[in-house]
Amino acid sequence: MVTPQVYWGTSYAYSTEYAYLFYRGVAKAGGNVYSSQRIIQVCIHYTRNGVSVADKRCSNASSSGGWHAGSEVVSNAADSPAWTGPPTILNITTTRINPGIL
Fold first, then answer.
1. Which of 5, 43, 61, 75 is geometrically suited to a Cys-Cys bond with 31, CB 3.0 to 4.6 A?
2. How confident is the model at residue 11 (pLDDT cuts 50, 70, 90)?
3. Looking only at Cα atoms, what is the longest distance across the chain?
4. Would you say which domain of life the source belongs to (predicted)?
């Protein structure tokens, strides 16, 4: 099992591989400030050989009387059946803003 993971305080994205056959990616935008920027969106999707193999999923923090974390999102992908096929890659993008913006 391989588990690449990135945590930015309460915001995160990670992937877990099961039995070399299946991937489960999880992401959450915490609305928190990390490295002087507020993380308001975290998106994930899987690709293989540059082609999407799973839907893009995004977690969005909201601002309503203060910042609130978005829901945790999940993206699943099956691995290539070829033992020597191209790797399945979790792609992560974030949207960050000035922390003074409400």
1. 61
2. very high
3. 51
4. Bacteria
